[in-house]
């Protein structure tokens, strides 16, 4: 074991909760897991004070890590510290709440849609929590298809919260690619439903329906398709790296 020393965050994967510290005195980078930090989450190039230990496999690991030069983080990072939600999750959920309120207020969607989203999201969160508990206990797991079906049925906001807060299924790119596809499909389903309402309505009602659809599905579908495409790209990259000699 080495004494307490200082260094800077050389790299950091916040989604998976680990990174490497470059010691100020030079030498090999030291592995650091989020559980080793005494408070807060690090950022790139942030100064830290830590104790370097040698693990059984001969790798240097940091323990008792303290953050130095801590400044007031941006609002989005303060929200993450309080809720566990990353920026993408904050953006998507904020868009959903705002768009639902606007769509219902315009009369394009019935008020019970919000109850459906809320109820299914709560159920989906509990199912994610049960699967997380089963994974820790080594018990029988809930299938990924069940999780995706719940998201597709309208529980995707609860799934998004569970992924971030519970740190469950939040780094498996193949799962995330399918998940964001279900979000996009749900948005398109709302579009089809709105179009049917538009066909039965007339005049002002049709305009309200179009406005409601644009409000609720446009931003959410756009974000979901971008994030889903990135997840698919990362999955292909992983497969290519594994196949490369």
Automatic annotation (TrEMBL):
<dbReference type="GO" id="GO:0005829">
    <property type="term" value="C:cytosol"/>
</dbReference>
<feature type="transmembrane region" description="Helical">
    <location>
        <begin position="88"/>
        <end position="105"/>
    </location>
</feature>
<dbReference type="InterPro" id="IPR012340">
    <property type="entry name" value="NA-bd_OB-fold"/>
</dbReference>
<keyword id="KW-1133">Transmembrane helix</keyword>
<dbReference type="InterPro" id="IPR052069">
    <property type="entry name" value="Ca-reg_mRNA-binding_domain"/>
</dbReference>
<dbReference type="InterPro" id="IPR002059">
    <property type="entry name" value="CSP_DNA-bd"/>
</dbReference>
<dbReference type="InterPro" id="IPR011129">
    <property type="entry name" value="CSD"/>
</dbReference>
<dbReference type="InterPro" id="IPR010718">
    <property type="entry name" value="DUF1294"/>
</dbReference>
<dbReference type="GO" id="GO:0003730">
    <property type="term" value="F:mRNA 3'-UTR binding"/>
</dbReference>
<dbReference type="Pfam" id="PF06961">
    <property type="entry name" value="DUF1294"/>
</dbReference>
<keyword id="KW-0472">Membrane</keyword>
<feature type="domain" description="CSD">
    <location>
        <begin position="4"/>
        <end position="67"/>
    </location>
</feature>
<dbReference type="Pfam" id="PF00313">
    <property type="entry name" value="CSD"/>
</dbReference>
<protein>
    <recommendedName>
        <fullName>CSD domain-containing protein</fullName>
    </recommendedName>
</protein>
<dbReference type="GO" id="GO:0043488">
    <property type="term" value="P:regulation of mRNA stability"/>
</dbReference>
<keyword id="KW-0812">Transmembrane</keyword>
<keyword id="KW-0597">Phosphoprotein</keyword>
